[in-house]
Amino acid sequence: MIMKKIYSLLLASALVFTSCSDFLDTKPQGKLTQDIFFGEEEGALMGINAIYSQMKSWDLIGFSWFGIMEVPSDNSDTGSSPADGSYARVNSLNDFTYDVYTSELNGWWTGNYKGIGFCNVALDNLDVLKDEQLKIRSIAQARFFRGFFYFNLVRTYGGVPLVTKVQNPDEYDQPCASEEAIYQQIIDDLSYAAMNLPTRDEWGIAERGRVTKGTAEGLLAKVYLFRQDYVSVKQYAGQVISRGEYNLHHNYRDLFSPDSYYSDEVMLADQYLWGSDKTRDKASEYVKWQGVRGFKGWGFSSPSESLDKAYESGDPRREATIIYDGENMEGVGVINFKDEPGVQPRANKKTMWPTTYWNANNFAKQNCHLYFLRYADVLLMYAEACNELANGESDPLVDDALAKLELVRDRARKSGDDPTVLPKITERNKAKLREIIWNERRIELAMEGHRFFDLIRADKVVPGYAEKMLKAHGKTNFNMSQHSTFYIPQKQIDISQGILKQNK
């Protein structure tokens, strides 16, 4: 079974990890025991850093990420070219004709369970760590990421196997747990992390990129948003806001610059990775799959015409998010999209930066990163919760919602040259303001992996909303009852010898 192999191999690899490392002054004699590996600071840190490294794996930032998180939404189309060997498979996710054999579904499953495996290896062994403060911080980081990986899984597949211990391969016999049980585990893990993680300032500059108290609270707010628990959304998002640990970056376009991935807006990204000499490996290949077709990249996950038309007139975020055929790039010149049938004339500009940012003159190795959570998202979650909790249009909670919404719009407004764009929102009707906030999320977080599951959760608040939005974009195959979750990969069912059951 795939998960049996994952856990046994992860444990084995963790215990021999030092064989190719120079963190010890002398070579280990004989087999390194678990107690020795995790009992010392550097061994424990290597185990935790392995979890961070998984955030840059192919299955978490490659085809599976955009194939599941963006392509099915109304913000994104398949992109690329029908002549590309991967086009038909990715397009099946775009038009909801995918099946149990679609490889991106299996990649996302294994990528997230590998991450969970790293977390469980650490959590099963960190009790022997001698430094109590380091032990608590390490456990908190591992529990945060286990919650993060399970949140990816439960939104994608619904109920999945709940594995919280490293298991003997011969003992694995778990069917899928209920969706409710998975969410409870996520909340338990993230709550522990929020209680025990340092703040960004407490970590200090040398540890930038580590998950923080605010990161855990922000992700907890998002988890509760998917549960329609708006009291808890307001509580945890409010704690992030009131602490002042994070802020909006001064300019929207610059936020995505390779120089800004330690911005005080970025709460979780794929960028945290060290080599054996503790230098940062900044490059991230996730840009390659989305780069301009015919220029530097494969052109998948193209911004849709629907997204293009959704921006308010003059919104600077449109120009910062979508690059069009014929635009100029510093150091490159005019970029012309490949002229062949089916190639869309738009690409994700958040991945497009001048040659001065390329490593070794390689577009695919530029220091451009994927943000999983940022402060603007927290502000919009808080605004949505306040609006949902408001008891009538005169409730002060509506003022609070409008104030947080204005912070996001004001930053966008100031990112351009025209101070008259993006007028303040004054709408106080709950239903109308709800859709305004949802649209603001669509625009603010465009192409960052939020839109499809935002549509799914919105449909649970306003039945029919997801179908309305997707079918308006021409995705007529979408059916909420069938497509609110994806199939469990047939490969996993086969490997489990029937223990796993298909979810629909």
Automatic annotation (TrEMBL):
One of its GO terms (cellular component) is cell outer membrane. Residues 84-225 form the SusD-like N-terminal domain. The keyword Membrane applies. It comes from the Bacteria. Keywords: Cell outer membrane, Membrane, Signal. It holds the Pfam family SusD-like_3. PROSITE patterns: PROKAR_LIPOPROTEIN (PS51257). Residues 306-496 form the RagB/SusD domain. Residues 1-24 form the signal peptide. Its main location: membrane. It is found in: Cell outer membrane. The keyword Signal applies. InterPro entries: SusD-like_N, SusD_RagB_dom, TPR-like_helical_dom_sf. Belongs to the SusD family. This is RagB/SusD family nutrient uptake outer membrane protein.
